[in-house]
Task: inverse folding
């Protein structure tokens, strides 16, 4: 028998409040191109991205600590597939442990030739040093900065 | 600190199992009809009717995968829950195992004697589950990045390569094994055998994960009937037993599973290991590598099967790759891992972890058909959900 289908799409807009901690973090990025973490007083660990409480000790964080701009790659991936609503491939992104931080923050890796996957994966390795680059025009967002290999 | 009371007082058994033959699309059945199909199969298997079910625990992962908000509202009639206790469970990919845990708790606590667990998914209808799964990330710090379950677990693979020496060839071997198994399982979605060369020839999605390292977007349903030992004996039902059941959760931020002085490594499945340790303690399993003959471990990407095997205590940390190279984990080996083909070959997300329990149950029941592990008496199942956060594990015994 003839079987019918019906098309539907969800497109819902939100305006998410970021809260005091993330707002302060993003204002420093936007206005001063500087990165900060929050220190957990109990463990002494600096959490980046900054959180108002530690998910390990469950204590409120108490102190802002400037981190980066250099750091090392903790993990990465290189995307070659187009996913709906996500950027056009190829692109590389992952997590970087910024200097003086104890946890890694996500960001794009730019300035790397991604045409050969095996070769690109040899360039982007766990432990490789990177530096943070900031956009000229910053809006107060995680996409205001990205990482490039330190030697460049 | 004791993690939980072990519920040994009331034994809980599985008395009926129903699952779809999974496919990418099922245009012949809308969502509630799909769920009802699995329920009918489970009830028929149990020799029970809907009227016998005292409660229903409903298995449903993120709504947007299905495209119906709170679709349990629509599913309630398919599972015959009018006038009954009904609840929906959602812990992402581990939903189906959390559903079994909720049903188990109702019975073990003496609240109910017989409980239906059921659900279904039509992941194929969205056409791009990764666009939806990006939305599980925090809009404050992480949503802006193209995080998806593929990229998240590609990043786990990169750390496993660095830490344990896992290679793309090791990953391909998982796909090859699971397709050999799926070819024997008429319910599996991807049933075509593939070679290592074919895996390598498939395109990269997110390095190092290629198309053939990744699960399909499946459509289908699953349901089971769970009952107390008393009910099973009074009604002279056939059953297999849920002798161990546990959960363990991980904190949210992936970046906290790396860096300095971390507790869990994103390369591995730390909380899944703790979950298995708890389930084994409850079941009295001392040496899983020797005592477990079949394992249905939730692994939607080839690389993640390795950390699941290690978390389940079936290989020492970092050793599972070499064991697979040596021919372990196939049907007929000491422990068959994913004899059904696993989540890698069939992923209807809302019920994938329930299918793991169902397939483990069929193994110890001796009813797995062509993909039966010979002599299986103890089998385990697991589920992973969230951003590698919510882990469940179960031990099944004949």
Result:
């Amino acid at each position: 028998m003839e079987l019918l289908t019906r098309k539907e799409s969800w497109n819902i807009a939100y305006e998410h409040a970021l809260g005091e901690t993330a707002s302060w973090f993003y204002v420093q990025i936007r206005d001063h191109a500087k990165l900060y973490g929050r220190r957990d007083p109990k463990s002494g660990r600096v959490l980046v991205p900054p959180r108002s409480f530690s998910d390990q000790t469950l204590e409120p964080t108490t102190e802002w600590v400037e981190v980066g701009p250099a750091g090392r790659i903790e993990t990465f991936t290189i995307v070659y597939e187009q996913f709906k609503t996500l950027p056009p491939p190829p692109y590389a992104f992952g997590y970087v442990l910024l200097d003086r931080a104890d946890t890694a923050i996500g960001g794009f890796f730019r300035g790397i030739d991604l045409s050969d996957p095996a070769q690109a994966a040899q360039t982007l390795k766990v432990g490789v040093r990177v530096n943070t680059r900031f956009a000229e025009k910053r809006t107060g967002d995680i996409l205001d900065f990205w990482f490039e290999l330190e030697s460049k | 600190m004791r993690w939980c009371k072990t519920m040994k007082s009331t034994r809980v058994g599985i008395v009926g199992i129903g699952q779809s033959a999974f496919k990418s699309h099922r245009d012949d059945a809308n969502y509630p009809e799909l769920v009802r199909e699995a329920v009918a199969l489970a009830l028929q298997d149990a020799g029970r009717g809907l009227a016998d079910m005292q409660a229903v625990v409903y298995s449903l992962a993120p709504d947007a995968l299905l495209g119906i908000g709170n679709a349990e509202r629509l599913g309630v009639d398919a599972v015959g829950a009018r006038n009954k206790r009904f609840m929906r469970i959602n812990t992402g990919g581990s939903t189906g195992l959390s559903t079994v845990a909720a049903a188990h708790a109702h019975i073990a606590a003496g609240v109910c004697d017989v409980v239906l667990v059921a659900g279904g998914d039509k992941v194929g209808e969205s056409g791009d589950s990764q666009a939806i799964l990006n939305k599980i990330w925090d809009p404050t710090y992480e949503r802006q990045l193209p995080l998806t379950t593929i990229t998240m677990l590609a990043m786990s693979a990169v750390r496993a390569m660095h830490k344990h020496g896992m290679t793309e060839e090791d990953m391909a071997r998982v796909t090859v094994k699971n397709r050999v198994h799926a070819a024997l399982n008429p319910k599996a979605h991807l049933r075509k055998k593939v070679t290592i060369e074919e895996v390598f020839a498939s395109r990269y999605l997110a390095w190092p994960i290629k198309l053939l390292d990744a699960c399909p977007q499946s459509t289908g349903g699953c349901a089971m009937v769970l009952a107390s030992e008393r009910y099973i004996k009074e009604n002279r039902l056939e059953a297999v037993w849920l002798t161990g059941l546990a959960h363990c959760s991980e904190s949210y931020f992936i970046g906290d599973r790396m860096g300095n002085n971390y507790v869990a490594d994103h390369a591995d499945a730390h909380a899944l290991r703790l979950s298995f340790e708890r389930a084994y303690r409850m079941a009295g399993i001392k040496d899983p590598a020797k005592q477990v003959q079949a394992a249905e471990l939730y692994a939607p990407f080839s690389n993640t099967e390795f950390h699941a095997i290690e978390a389940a205590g079936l290989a020492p940390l970092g050793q599972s790759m070499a064991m697979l190279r040596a021919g372990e984990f196939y049907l007929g080996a000491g422990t068959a891992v994913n004899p059904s083909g696993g989540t890698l070959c069939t992923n209807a997300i809302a019920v994938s972890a329930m299918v793991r329990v169902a397939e483990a149950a069929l193994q110890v029941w001796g009813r797995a058909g062509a993909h039966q592990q010979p002599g299986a008496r103890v089998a385990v199942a697991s589920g992973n959900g969230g951003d590698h956060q919510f882990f469940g594990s179960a031990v099944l015994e004949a």
Q: What stands out?
A: The two ends of chain A are 63 Å apart (CA to CA). Residues 95 and 106 of chain A are 4 Å apart (CA to CA). Chain A is about 15% helix and 30% strand. The first helix of chain A runs from residue 19 to 32.
